[in-house]
Amino acid sequence: MITSIQFVGIVFALFMLFLTYYSFKRKSFKIYDLIFWGIIWIGVLFASIFPSSLRTVVSFFNVADVMSLMIVLAFIILFINSFYLYYVVRKSQIKIEYVVKELSFERKFKRKTH
């Protein structure tokens, strides 16, 4: 018998798998994004369908139950994702600053020559 939280987890994982594949087809995601997020959503789907299969992992990490393990893993993924997003935004910010600086020098140089 599937509990309501399992049903929600299954529907959520399937929806996110569809959304990931759809984003890949629209060329918003690259193949690495598809593989990374696909593995995560398949893991969530597997954990939602077979929560008892994670009991060995729960006992290995000495966590209270499967739900606590899922929450800890979700926080780890959120921290990794937040760090990666910070890195990408910072890298983009540096590139934008460089482009703006180059454009301002170029405009200043053009004005002096005319």
Provide mean pLDDT, rounded.
90
Q: Can you write the helix and strand succession as a string?
A: HHHH
Q: What's the oligomerization state?
A: single chain
Share of residues in strands: under 5%
Tell me the total number of β-strands: 0
Principal-axis shape? elongated
Q: What's the gyration radius in Å? A: 22 Å
Q: How far is the N terminus from the C terminus?
A: 80 Å
Structural class of the secondary structure composition? mainly alpha
The major pleated sheet works out as:
none
- List low-confidence stretches: none
Number of helices: 4
Percentage of residues in helical conformation: over 70%
State the gist of this model.
The protein has 114 residues and is an all-alpha fold. It has helices at 4-25, 31-49, 55-61, 66-113.
Q: What topology does this entry show?
A:
Blueprint lengths: L3 H22 L5 H19 L5 H7 L4 H48 L1
Description of the molecule:
The protein has helices at 4-25, 31-49, 55-61, 66-113. It is an all-alpha fold and 114 residues long. Helix 1 packs antiparallel against helix 2.
Give short descriptive properties of this protein.
single chain, mainly alpha, 114 residues
